[in-house]
Structure prediction request, 248 residues.
Amino acid sequence: MKKLSIIMSTFCVMFTFAQKVSDYKYIVVPSSFESFKKDNYGLSAFLTKNMKAKQYVVLPENRGQWPEEANVNPCSVLNADVINDSNFLRNKIVLEFKDCNNKVVSSQKGITSIKEYEEGFKDALSETFAKIPVSNPIQNIEYKKETEVTEIIPQVSEQKSQASRAEKYSNGKLNLQKIQMDTTQFILVDGNSSVPFATFKETTKKDVFRVKLGSGESTTGYFENGNLVIEIPKGNDEYSKEVFAPLK
Prediction:
């Protein structure tokens, strides 16, 4: 019962998290970027200055220097990375922002005709800033989390006996329990993790569901020949088919 309560609490917290850069208040900008091992070309300072101009609070990598609000809720923090994507003709970069699950929330490309490295990389990075919105963090997120957890824990309590007999599914690597939350939605959970693998909500089409993955990504799921199928996003509008078969 305690494990289920933890699972559901984490579930509610997770799905109040933002999925757009502008929904976040805090951005971690590292002192150097992996793609620029030999010389950072002043990109960290340049990115920090421009993110502050868009009203984000820029944090260092050392969590000991974070404000209490960010330390208590590290999933309210995005991690910035500048990737060197240059070729012999052009200086190019990719500005990425990842969430606490290391999932890409935003990826913007910048390109320049300036061949000098420092000036060129900064010019390419500047091109991405036009696509990054001003910070507009979700308000009262803590209140929303507390309210949702309060509402859902009694449901779990009432369903204690049903949860112990929950249906089980496996893709050969993961064994997951299907827990029915109400008549329109259910979740898949891993008994070894407090984070739900996915939540399913009914659509107007029978046996087809809107799915929110534990990573925060939205996709589609459906029943097919008795199996539960999830279309896993791979990026570039491509998906892989993850099939979970019922366990006897």
Residues 7 and 203 are 24 Å apart (CA to CA). Residues 17-129 form a domain with the Rossmann fold fold (CATH 3.40.50). The helical segments are 2-14, 43-53, 68-72, 117-129, 141-158, 160-164. The two ends are 23 Å apart (CA to CA).
